[in-house]
Design goal:
single chain; 400 residues; five-stranded mixed β-sheet; 13 helices
């Protein structure tokens, strides 16, 4: 596949205006309801500029004036704060995992308004449906969710998945577990939905979700580690997620795990994804007679019901994740590490095992995902919301 050309660089005046618009809307997101004068103080922009941007956002339907004015400290008219207008717009989210696709609608604060899971055919969730069929079902699923909420307009669609996802070309270049190769997701979903479609890897999508809506907001550098059937990572500094050439950054599936015993499809033994994947967890649980299927939540349920072997398997996996985090901490030294992993999201003993694996000196900087009950829905939608908050004046005219 040819190398994707770099996107054109906007003129300096356009880039400055885009940046200023972004920081104003981000201030409303983080502090709203908030007075325009406070936005000016927080952003360093002139009051006139803030007023101009707020007027534009009001026209677009992204913000509204608060119903209750705030009395100023001195003489004069009361301040009328502005806040996000959550009554008009949503974004669509599509996340394709190995066993199923999640389709969702998210509001401007990243909250899930509606969600649906579309299971792939086959006993292990793979094989019966190809990429075109999965994407067609996802588009139909989004249409069904929007039909149930006719007052809401969709600004665009975000798509996230594991594997090698090239943001610039809108393509899933390679996803071995799904059997996808050079799938033009942006073109296919765009044609089926009639909406702008934005595509990224799910670890990078979740870094954006954490910095916009989660507990990592305000951190100067954030590492996100996603441990599901796919194991990958993403790293952000100064509000920018590192993608690398053709968005290959974060591919850690084949990092060697000392003492690892699981065979990997690459021909080696002890690769990170082979050791930590949910498939491996469920296979070990089946071997122990705990579960019969491939759903890791069944292992979590067994541990919650008092099965000591299930609890041990989950804690051992969490400890191994912690040791992987410690390695990544040594290389990247982020301020905050966010981990998405099923045991860590649902069990305190797994979180403790994770932090023990990291080590006492850095354990406090490691936190679980801010979205334990909606992580896949948030991953998809956050791809589109990141685009909105980076360039809010370009909100889709089709939706307005």
């Amino acid at each position: 596949m040819p190398r994707t050309a770099a996107p054109p660089v906007p003129p300096p005046s356009t880039a400055r205006r885009r940046t200023s618009a972004s920081v104003v809307l981000r201030s409303v997101l983080e502090h709203g309801p908030v007075a325009r004068s406070t936005i000016a103080r927080l952003t360093g922009l002139s009051p006139a500029s803030v007023t101009d941007y707020c007027s534009r956002f009001t026209e677009l339907g992204l913000i509204r004036e608060s119903e209750t004015p705030r009395r100023s400290q001195g003489v004069g008219r009361p301040h009328v704060p502005v806040d996000l207008d959550e009554s008009r717009f949503v974004v669509g989210g599509v996340h394709v995992a190995v066993p199923y696709t999640t389709v969702a609608l998210l509001d401007l604060r990243g909250r899930v308004v509606a969600v649906r899971e579309l299971r792939h055919n086959g006993t292990d969730g793979v094989g019966a449906l190809g990429a075109d069929a999965i994407l067609a079902r996802a588009a139909d699923g989004l249409a069904a969710l929007l039909a149930r909420s006719p007052r809401l307009r969709c600004l665009g669609v975000g798509f996230a998945a594991g594997g090698w996802v090239d943001r610039d070309s809108g393509t899933v270049v390679e996803h071995p577990l799904l059997g996808w190769q050079d799938v033009p997701v942006r073109d296919v979903l765009g044609a089926r939905t009639g909406l702008p479609v934005h595509v990224d890897g799910h670890a990078r999508a979740l870094v954006n979700a954490e910095r916009l809506f989660g507990r990592a907001r305000g951190s100067r550098s954030v590492l996100h580690l996603f441990v599901g059937n796919v194991v990958d990572a993403a790293f952000a500094t100064n509000d920018e997620v590192h993608h690398g050439p053709r968005s290959q950054a974060g591919a850690i599936a084949h990092l060697p795990v000392p003492g690892g015993t699981e065979p990997c499809d690459c021909g080696r033994t002890g690769c990170l994804q082979a050791e930590l994947s949910e498939r491996t967890l469920c296979r070990r649980a089946r071997r122990a007679g705990i579960v019969e299927g491939v759903n890791p939540m069944h292992v979590v349920a067994a541990a919650a019901a008092g099965d000591p072997v299930a609890a041990r398997l989950l804690a051992e996996r969490a400890g191994a994740v912690g040791r992987a985090v410690r390695l990544l901490l040594d290389v990247l030294n982020p301020e905050t590490v966010v981990v998405t992993e099923v045991g860590i999201l649902h069990r305190e003993d797994c979180l403790a095992a994770l932090r023990e694996g990291v080590g006492d000196d850095r354990a406090a900087s490691v936190i679980p995902s801010s979205f334990p009950d909606s992580v896949l829905a948030v991953a998809g939608g956050s791809v589109a919301l990141d685009v909105l908050y980076r360039d809010p004046l370009a909100a889709s005219p089709e939706a307005i």
